[in-house]
């Protein structure tokens, strides 16, 4: 009986401690009047950065936390620091981010959703952020092993973070009805970014960015900023001045012993639709090259992504060679050859270090070559970007 009482006492103490911590966190959240929770398949890190930059330019003291290529905390003066993680990523770190924003006396916190599992998406919103403004960029085929099996299931999973009784902004069109249903259920106003909204983003607006930014992202971020009272021109200028995410799409051009190698960082695009679009943009930017090399950074822990891309890549405008790096490259190769790709075009560099991958790229290149990285930025993808960035001239891809 004594042991049972001790167990009951311990359990009660743990529950009471959790309740107290939850109440303290809610009081902390209330000290930040504007809380913007950003989610979506593609572009959420970029949109979070754009919104924060626009609000800062409008005189609103803002912190921003992104979990894109590298987790970053962006302070009210625009400086950035890596987010310290004693182990692997955990949604509970959002509590620490909120506390930091309060310590910095922020009026606004723009925070990227970390969760993939549908239940955790709602938990992050309802327990950790309680957004005054929810933002969902889009819903595309990615992380199907967790949120799938279909694109519509992805939309339903993302709808888990629709806040209660506030506003939801989204650039999604194909599955807007899913978000609308969730918003109606929670008494939240849905504010869609329409095609006409995107059309107001002119080539001159996009020319102000030193990297490739998508009109949908800019239109979505501007709508949030304008609804919070920041003038469009002021917000846009702030966005131009803000540094991009480390995974932003940039081109690096280098002359390597009389070989012109044009490397495009498309690693952060990892769903088939976005990846194909960026590949086509790169081909348009470098139409006269002698050799086109598509690099796919595979991950054994993301087999669905490798299989997805492998199944569709044969239908894209072709490359001359497909260099497979990372781990689990056989998954991509199997899917691609089954879809009709010539297996002689595949070059394997499984688990090779970045300097060896660079040597293979040089061997595959001709007098003038386009080289583009795709699929995953993590691991050797980011290493390869840095390798080219340290040895070449950075160019905006337009």
From TrEMBL:
One Gene Ontology biological process: capsule polysaccharide biosynthetic process
InterPro entries: Capsule_biosynth_CapB (IPR008337), Mur-like_cat_sf (IPR036565), Mur_ligase_cen (IPR013221), MurCDEF_pg_biosynth (IPR050061)
Protein name per its UniProtKB record: Capsule biosynthesis protein CapB
GO molecular-function term, one example from the UniProt record: acid-amino acid ligase activity
PANTHER family xrefs: PGA SYNTHASE CAPB, UDP-N-ACETYLMURAMATE--L-ALANINE LIGASE-RELATED
All residue ranges annotated as the Mur ligase central domain in the record: 38-157
Record-linked Gene3D superfamilies: Mur-like, catalytic domain
Taxonomic lineage: Bacteria, Pseudomonadati, Planctomycetota, Planctomycetia, Planctomycetales
A GO term from the CC aspect: membrane
């Amino acid at each position: 009986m004594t042991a049972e009482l001790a167990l009951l006492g311990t359990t009660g103490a743990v529950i009471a401690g959790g309740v107290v911590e939850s109440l303290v966190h809610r009081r902390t959240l209330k000290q930040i009047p504007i809380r913007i929770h950003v989610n979506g398949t593609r572009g959420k890190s970029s949109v979070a950065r754009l919104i924060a930059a626009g609000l800062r330019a409008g005189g609103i003291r803002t912190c921003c936390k992104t979990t894109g290529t590298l987790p970053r905390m962006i302070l009210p003066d625009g400086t950035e620091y890596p987010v310290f993680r004693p182990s692997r990523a955990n949604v509970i770190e959002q509590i620490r981010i909120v506390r930091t924003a309060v310590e910095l006396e922020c009026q606004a916190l723009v925070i990227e959703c970390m969760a993939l599992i549908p239940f955790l998406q709602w938990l992050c919103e309802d327990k950790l952020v309680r957004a005054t403004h929810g933002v969902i960029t889009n819903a595309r085929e990615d992380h199907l092993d967790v949120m799938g099996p279909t694109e519509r299931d992805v939309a339903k999973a993302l709808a888990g973070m629709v806040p209660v009784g506030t506003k939801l902004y989204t650039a999604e069109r194909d599955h807007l009805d899913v978000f609308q249903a969730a918003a109606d259920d929670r008494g939240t106003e849905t504010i869609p970014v329409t095609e006409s909204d995107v059309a107001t983003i002119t080539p001159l607006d996009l020319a102000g960015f030193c990297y490739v930014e998508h009109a949908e992202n800019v239109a979505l971020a501007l709508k949030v900023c304008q609804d919070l009272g920041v003038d469009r021109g002021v917000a846009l200028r702030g966005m131009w001045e803000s540094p991009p995410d480390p995974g932003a799409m940039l081109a690096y051009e280098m002359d390597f012993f009389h070989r012109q190698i044009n490397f495009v960082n498309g690693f952060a695009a990892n769903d088939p639709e976005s990846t194909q679009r960026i590949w086509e943009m790169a081909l348009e930017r470098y139409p006269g090259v002698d050799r086109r090399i598509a690099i796919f950074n595979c991950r054994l822990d993301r087999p669905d992504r490798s299989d997805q891309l492998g199944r569709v890549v044969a239908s894209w405008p072709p490359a001359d060679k497909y260099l497979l790096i990372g781990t689990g490259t056989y998954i991509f190769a199997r899917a691609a050859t089954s879809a009709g790709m010539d297996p002689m075009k595949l070059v394997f560099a499984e688990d090779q270090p970045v300097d060896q991958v660079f040597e293979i790229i040089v061997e595959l290149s001709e007098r003038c070559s386009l080289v583009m990285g795709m699929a995953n930025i993590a691991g050797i993808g980011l290493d390869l970007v840095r390798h080219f960035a340290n040895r070449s001239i950075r160019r905006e891809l337009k």
